[in-house]
Design goal:
Length: 240
């Protein structure tokens, strides 16, 4: 028996998220189908996260215990041949049998992609939120820093979020820019449903000048989702 940690990259555009659902195309469903096609039996996966419909994965960790004795390179090559073109296994390694991708996750990093342009770019549009107005990144950075630390993030969770507690700890919020492409990178111990997309939406509100950076503190302390801005579209979000 070996416990294999695999990292998946996928384009979430045509998936109904990670988690297996009846009569829906999901990343988990397609990956489990590939595992069964390769090894002839069903496998139970452990995953660090469950991404929503339309969200992309850059290096999504998944662990699975297998009984077959095959080289890691052969496992990776075989699974890549059996998964659809919008999923790729980019890394494989052996980990202790006691390891679980969800149980042993120390934190998570998500990255949200924006691009500034008055018109659509068909090569960028599926993977970023287009903002037509200029963005003040200094103001966005100031607002982002106000979220760092351990807080009640009730104002940054979806109404259908089923997490028992709204308390989360953000370790870093970094905003970078390369030409028209802007990234919001958020690292924390865990995240609520839609939390990163709501953070991104609120940062854009500050960036376009609708609110001052200190408004972010007001939203956070309100613990009321209605006090914040819009939820950013799913297409710009990547699980890193």
């Amino acid at each position: 028996m070996r416990n294999i940690l695999l990292r998946l990259r996928y384009d979430g555009t045509h998936f109904k998220g990670w988690q297996r659902q009846p009569d829906q195309r999901t990343v988990q469903g397609e990956f489990e189908r590939a595992l069964k096609g390769m090894f002839g039996e069903d496998y139970r996966l452990a995953t660090s996260s469950r991404t929503d419909s339309g969200v992309h994965g850059w290096r999504h960790p998944v662990s699975v215990v297998i009984s077959k004795s095959m080289r890691l390179s052969a496992i990776q090559k075989g699974l890549n041949a059996l998964t659809p073109k919008d999923i790729a296994i980019v890394d494989a390694q052996v980990v202790p049998l006691s390891f679980g991708a969800r149980r042993d996750a120390l934190g998570k990093t998500y990255q949200y992609h924006l691009y500034q342009s008055p018109y659509q770019d068909p090569y960028v549009e599926p993977y970023a939120w287009r903002i037509s107005k200029p963005l003040n990144l200094d103001s966005m950075r100031k607002a982002g820093r106000l979220l760092i630390g351990k807080h009640d993030f009730s104002a940054f969770r979806a109404s259908h979020c089923d997490a028992r507690s709204p308390i989360r700890e953000l370790h870093a919020v970094h905003i970078g820019r390369e030409n028209r492409h802007i990234t919001i990178t958020v690292t924390g111990n865990a995240f609520l449903r839609n939390m990163v997309r709501i953070i991104a939406g609120n940062l854009v509100e500050v960036g376009v000048g609708r609110f001052d950076p200190d408004w972010m503190t007001h939203v956070l302390e309100s613990r009321d989702r209605g006090e914040g801005g819009r939820t950013a579209p799913t297409r710009g979000l990547f699980l890193v």
